[in-house]
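Weekly sync notes, structure subgroup
Attendees: PM, AL, DS (notes)

Item 1: joint prediction request from the bench team. They want all two components modeled as one assembly rather than separately. Inputs as received:
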Amino acid sequence: MEYAWLIPVAPLLAFVIVGFFGNKTKEGGGAIALGSVLIAFVLSILVSYEYFVTSGLFDSGEAYAPAPFQWLVFGDYALNFGIYIDSLTCVMLLFSSFISLMIFLYSIGYMKGEGARKRRYYAEIALFLGAMLGLILSSNYLEMFIFWELMGVCSYLLIGFWSYKHPEGDAASEAAASAAKKAFLVTRLGDVCMMAGLFVLLFAFKSLDFTTLFDPAEIANVDSGMIILGSLLLFGGVIGKSAQFPLQDWLPDAMAGPTTVSALIHAATMVKAGVYLVARSYPLFIQSADVMLVVAVIGGVTAFIAATMALNNMSLKRVLAYSTVSQLGLMIMALGAGGYVIAMTAGDYHASLGYTAGVFHMMNHAFFKALLFMCAGSVIHAVASEDLRQMGGLSRKMRITSATMFIGALSIAGFPFFSGFWSKDLVFESVMNPYASGLPAGDIFLFLFALALITAFMTAFYMFRMWYMTFKGKPKEAAEHCHGESPKTMTVPLIILSLFAVGSGFLLFVGLNDIITFSVIGGEFMVGGNGKTAEYLFWHVLENKWTYVSLALSLSGIFLAYLMYSRRIINPARFNMGGRSGLYRFLTARYYFPQLYDQISLKLGYGVAKGVDYVDKNLIDGTVDGISNAISGSSDTMRKMQTGNVRNYAAIVIIGTMVLVAVLFILVRFGGV
Amino acid sequence: MPRKVMTMIPIEMFLILSAALFCIGLVGVLVKTNGIVILMCIELMLNAANINFIAFAAYLGDALGQVFVLMAIAVAAAEVGIGIAILLNVYKAKKTTDVDDLTILRW
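Output from the run, pasted for the record:
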């Protein structure tokens, strides 16, 4: 485990090597990037094995956190660089590096036609992954924040990858550039919040190390108001990064990048970092039930809103993007609901399965969303279009893609015994829990639960709407050019991931339940499902009546999509009145959120900018200009003395000498010097 | 061997002479526009100072003043040499030695 720091170093090194020498190697450095992620994955396995099995730390519920390298020390404060390994770290490391391995492998087929620009692509995704792995291993918030920002930069670069030459033309490349800017600026809003949170915590705890911050004794010493403020500000960072309401809008636009980048952002890195931050900050967040309530409500609202926007979208990738936002909302909501119960029951860490549900869903989502995105990429690669209306009938030409995507859709829709089924029902159960146990905010959670159920229905519906429109029915114009299945480097990852999309849910019953826990040094703090046996969980899900309600809703969603888009018994146009219905336009316009952003940034941002500009131009520039004007003005006047006439100078010298002599004379004569 | 004081010209005479010479040189520097004349006037002022030196040296019986004068004459010779060389070059370039016309070394 002492070599765990090598995990992020491998991809970061690959970034440097590919960045400088990529074009001299085959595939623009793709092989090097792939090799580095393989190293990271193998190291992650070794580290996890050591943590769980040989070190004995896991059994005692302790985290591995060696004394960090002191980076900056000033006064009482020290900023450190170190690693922190507990079971959450291991789970994150494993699925992040594994999925990235699949995505990198897939990229080699997908990016084949990019020519010399592949170097840039491989260098950037290696950096992206390195930053994610570094963030997971960080031992303090500042280190985490550095990697967090590094990911922001990478997402900006990768979303704008096609900004100067998009395969779909100039308009698309402009859209890519503006989407990249949007992703960067919107997440920046969250990052500012997070940074403010770091200041608050640093002020309160005099340290940002997890070992200090998560120590119950330390927490007891600190003013709880500071912790609440710090937690809320940190959650602001999560809202930005994980695209939660009201900053959810950048993620759908981020589809402008290559599909592999979307897969990376949605499944392995970036947005998962936000959920990870909530999971990691649990000891702070559960100090206040109100914070957890905020978290849960934001998650629930996001899940619902994003799902509605996916209902009528016509772009293959955007439907997936909205579904990611929606699923992220579910994870955040589960974490919030679980934390709320823990906070209300005064720190009974086993009171709720919310933590397990959130992290478990994050992992399952990583598998099936990576799968879905890569299937979408395979389709787009084949037909060169993202518009669902131009597809159809592809299942005959692309058997592997259509089958794997079907599995992914079943999984996300929560079809029984697929991975999404287990985690989604755990999420629902944990959201129901506060109401069922009669806690004060139970009504709010009942409402959130209702939102979650509707979301489940909509998820099933829009995923299968997408699937039927792509793979069934009559082939439309774009589908005609389809030249068959994608190359092996693309289909092999699809098959591997589809196995996980089916099976990763069962990991819950072979010990994952115990693994999704949170540990600190000393082992005094553990949340998660420990103490619950596999049989308990299995029957817990199956005996819960709400499982059947959500299952019925999912199935009816699938069936409705089948009727509307495959059998065409119900004409979808009846609902939108040929695109004129208010609701249809409202959803297409994404609840007018982009306009809201524009208005806010125009009115508020532009107003502030004008004010700042005024101060800059008049106050700051005025001072500087005034000083320089005074100097140049006075020198303008003074230089007139320089006539260039020798006799004038001589006269001045002589007069001056005479005056001096006269003064000296007067002083000697009358002053008595 | 000490001289008789009676036979000596009073020092005031020398001082008046040198002051007059200095003032003539000064007025010349200020009034004349020809560079060469100005140089000559500067020489006059230098020599006025030299007379002072010699007068005091003789009056006080100290040879140091004379040494200074020799030094000043040597320096003045060099200075005139350079001054005239500059003026010669200026004349070649500008076809004039009138200092009122030579005002380009300014803003």
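Discussion: The longest strand of chain A covers residues 69-74.
Action: AL to compare against the crosslinking data before next sync.
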